[in-house]
Amino acid sequence: MAPKRPVDPDALSGRDRKKQKLNAARTIAVQQEPTAGPSTANSMARLPGVLNAEKFVEARQYEVKAMANAIKSAHNGATHRVWQTLPRHLRRRAASHDVRRVPARLRAKAVAEMDAKPPPPKHKPKRGKNKQISKTEEYLKRQRDKTWLETHKWHAKRMKMETKWGYRIAMHTSDKSFRSSHRAAVHGAIIHDASYESVIEMSGQLKVLTAILDMCMDLQEVKPGAPRYTAGSRAYRGHLYKPGTYPYDLVALVTILWRPPVDTKGKQPAHKDEDAVRQLWIRAHPATFDAVFDALQTSATKVLQMFKSGSAVEGPVDVELVDMRGQLNIYDIMGPKSSQVLKGALQPAAIGQSQEFKQFWSALKDLQSPGGAVPDMVIGFTVNDPRLKFPPKNSKPADSDQASPMLPFPASLLAQSPLWDETKRMPPKFKKKDLDERREKNLIPGTKLQTLRQDDRVPVLLIQRSLRPSASSAERSDGLHGWTLIIPSGWSMPFWDSLTYTGTRVGGQRECQVQSFEAGVPFFPKDFPTTELYDSEMKLQAQEEEETWNRKPPAKRPNYTKLLTRSPWRPDWDAVLGKTKPDAGLLTTQRGEGEDDDMDGVQSYGSDLPPWLVSGPKTHEMLAKLIGTGDAAPSILFSEVNALRAARGIAPLTNVASEGLMQSALLPVRLDMAKRGSPQDNAMIHVMPDEEIMKWEKEKAKSVAEKSWDEADTEGEGTAKIVIPDPSTVIGFVTTGHFSLARGEFQALGCIPLSRYLELQQQRKRICSRVHNNGDSSIWVQLRNADEGHCRVAKMDLV
Predict the structure, then answer these.
(1) d(CA 215, CA 305)
(2) Which of 81, 139, 518, 682 is the most exposed place for a label (fewest CB within 10 A)?
(3) Nearest in space to 675 (alpha carbons), one of 719, 705, 715
């Protein structure tokens, strides 16, 4: 190592050398001349009578050059610009090119240090002055093939947008994951703009409307014309079918909202007058608007013909269907703090509120969760312009140790709202700049504006919304709860700014799907494989995935032929239901002995019946009657379906055989991974032979006793060779599968044929008798992703 340079104690430091250099640069050179003698009295006599400018400048040439050189050297010697002379806590990154970031006392000097910018080029407009269009016209031109929501510009800056179902919809936030959104739905509040949903208004006599709905709604649900719904105090949620085709031709999931009867005497209004003219709204998925409208129109035609042909009907019988798309804005606010968000953002009008509403509004802020309210409860009221109270502040609930307040019971008086009247759904009278001018006149800045007589009063509807699993799985999850807020069109941004200002998270389509998945509820249309919308969505998705797969080289993509995957990009429900024969080239793999005896495949092919979904509150009761009946199950199912049709006055099925009805039935199921495994969408559900299930049950019982469970020994993961199951053992597909944040494990939702489920129940009883566990055995199946060859064990339950 070289020796260090000796330090000279008399040497100047770096700071002193910099000062010395700066002083030398600022020193003006002086010409050395002989010292002048003492002045005399006649010194003025030697001055010339005429001053020659040329000779004078020549004599002072040295001083002029010295001054110019000093100025130049001082400028070059300055090693700091203006912004560099500031203390470090006052420096800004943009101060080097933006003089507004420099203190005002130094801006003039900073401008002098800036490089001269070239003049901006003259922008020549593409259109002439006579052809210029406004921003509004430009936005309308961009909406020729799609429709923007009123909050489109807000979402476009923060979320991933896609064109779907005729709208420009926010798919998901810019975040890489949805964990924060799930946390907001469980512990906070998350809002979603669902204004793209289609709304149909139907009006007519009560008996006519109930007959129309009874013909096309789910027969397992309570009638939509029941008094609990016709009073307008609760919203109805159910499945809509084509008229008279139940259980086939499922169209969409709809929400029906009846208008409460007009209160004229201040008492509880009567809602059972069948001759009274009533009004209702039907909310549905935007892609199913035409199908829902056609189903209602067809049902109305049949009902009107039936009523007009009857002799007991007097007077004209008419039904009116109105397309209300674009007239309402709908917000879904989920989470336990959604009540406090609404309480802080909305200010009810001081006049015109019922006593029931005042009781509800006073108890809303102390509500620990919207799940404490009556499910599907409807509240109607009028609020002031939310911009007058902006910025809002969430209300704080009382101590969590205290019991939740008692909310009023749903009633027609509580549900009445001027929102039903088209003349009351008016856009804002004042623009934002008008309200800002009023704020400028306040003596104290930041104070809220006082509500004046000419200010807007906005009618709204508030509906309790819950995502709950079925009764069989209620012990697994409490579901997610929130509110649905309906406001007139034109008021979207004033309400949106107030609802999102206090930290409410915003979600898109992905967040809505995750909420349903975490609650254990099928999401429409992804988890409804018997609908036309599901087929169209899966067709587009399969096309995109296939194009992505084709772009990859063979070494970087899965070989589905070797993996024996029959349908890698979308579920093949026809093969599962036995309508098409499996490919003969995929039946050459190994198969366990005795598997054909345990689970026989469906032998009938070529059925033309479309698949139908077994769902509804009476599904568990219906399945209990079918289990253990053997060959009599198709006839029992046929009689149960006809009994439901007869209860609604619909003719029984005559052109469908009982065997065909059983063969075309699909049953929604939930799959929980036993130990390992990460199921994906389109994963295959395989049946397990009896020997493997018995081995699994014994290993599980042993692990419970020893408090250890090595799945590698149970599944044979340590073996070098992976045996791919035979494609004929596929009994269903997974529609949605990924990690569940609520349970901390992987979960999946899927569908299997009803006949296969009955066979699995027989297998469960057979296993219970062999292992002697008193009927506590679960239904075990195997899951295999489309791009994998290894199967994972999962437990199956009904949704």
Answers:
(1) 14
(2) 139
(3) 715
Query: What are the tokens at 723?
Result: 């045996």
Across 305-315, average pLDDT: 72
Q: In this structure, are residues 379 and 358 in contact, taking their beta carbons and an 8 Å threshold?
A: no
Beta-carbon contacts of residue 201 (< 8 Å; ≥ 6 apart): 279, 280, 281, 282, 320, 321, 322, 324
Closest CA to 202 of 194, 193, 192, 212: 212
Q: Compute the distance between CA of residue 673 and CA of residue 136 in angstroms, rounded to an integer.
A: 53
Sheet holding 328-334, edge to edge: 378-384, 457-467, 480-488, 328-334, 190-193, 505-506
8 Å CB contact between 342 and 364: yes
Report DSSP state, residue 351: S
CB neighbour class for 79 (10 Å; exposed up to 12, middle 13-18, buried from 19):
exposed
Q: Is 668 helix (H, G, I), strand (E, B) or coil?
A: strand
HSE of 627, CA atoms in CB hemisphere, 13 A = 13
Q: What is the 3-state secondary structure of 105-120?
A: HHHHHHHHHCCCCCCC
Closest C-alpha among 156, 172, 167 to residue 195: 167
How many residues would you count in the chain? Answer: 799
Q: Is residue 468 a contact partner of residue 516, using CB atoms and an 8 Å limit? A: no
Two tokens, residue 793? 């064990």
DSSP symbol at 650: P
CATH T-level fold of 198-323:
Alpha-Beta Plaits (3.30.70)
Beta bridge mates, 255: 237, 283
**How far apart are the C-alpha atoms of 238 and 218, rounded to whole Å?**
6
Question: Is 383 buried (19+), middle (13-18) or exposed (0-12) by CB count in 10 A?
Answer: buried
Radius of gyration over every alpha carbon of the chain, rounded to an integer in angstroms: 39
Q: Where are the domains of the chain?
A: 82-111, 198-323, 328-397+405-508, 550-798
Q: Which two tokens stand for residue 522?
A: 């099928």
- CA dist 761 and 766 (Å) reads 9
Q: Give the residue-averaged pLDDT of 626-631.
A: 88
Segment among 16-25, 321-330, 539-548, 726-735 with least mean pLDDT:
16-25
Distances (CA, A) of 783 to 728, 733, 745: 14, 9, 15
How far apart CA 332 and CA 463 sit, in angstroms, is 9
Interval 607-635 mean pLDDT = 89
What token pair was written down for 431? 């623009």
**6's tokens:** 């000796």
CA distance 322 to 325: 9
State the burial class of residue 600 (Cβ atoms within 10 Å of its Cβ: 0-12, 13-18, 19+): exposed
pLDDT on residue 174: 85
Of 31, 22, 28, residue with least CA distance to 69: 28
In this predicted model, which residue has the larger pLDDT, 94 or 452?
A: 452
Q: Is the dihedral of CA 533, 534, 539, 541 positive or negative?
A: positive
Q: Which of 70-74, 570-574, 694-698 is predicted least confidently? A: 70-74
Task: Centre a 10 Å sphere on the Cβ of residue 438 and count the other Cβ atoms it contains.
Answer: 14
Q: Report pLDDT digits (tens) over 31-75.
A: 766 555 555 556 566 667 777 888 877 878 888 888 888 877 776
Task: Record the tokens describing residue 607, joined without a space.
Answer: 């059925």
Specify whether the CB–CB gap between 746 and 616 falls below 8 A.
Answer: no
Tokens 């129940």 locate to 761
